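Readers of this paper often ask what the protein records in our data store actually look like. Nothing more is needed to write down the fold, since each code stands for a local backbone conformation. Below, we set out a record of this kind in full and without editing:
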Amino acid sequence: ISEKTSAIMREMLRHVVTEGTASLGEVPGYAVGGKTGTADKPKERGGGYYKDKVISTFASIFPAHDPKYVLVVTLDEPVETSGSEARRTAGWTAVPVAAEIIRRVAPLLGLRPEIEPSPLAAISLTSN
């Protein structure tokens, strides 16, 4: 893909964390980007899907402006119970797990926290 397309896609993935369904995935200094996914879990013998069981996934990159690593967290039948109702979506289950892994592992990988550059700073989106 072109450099311009890559920059646009990375910015979109970053917005999933800064403004979207993965807001609990923010790790200061590491500019996490990613995509959440929550799928209803199919019944073992067919016949549809469970009403209260899901598979949640968060596929992430960091740092989003210059990706060095990809981390995918998938949880089978997760439930987050800190609120008044059980929450099962990836934003409440897989995303916080990924954020904690990144928070702990990034320094071990030699990544130092940094100030995030302005979005698409080096790419002009209006030129051909």
Q: What stands out?
A: The chain has one domain: 3-108. The mean pLDDT is 92.
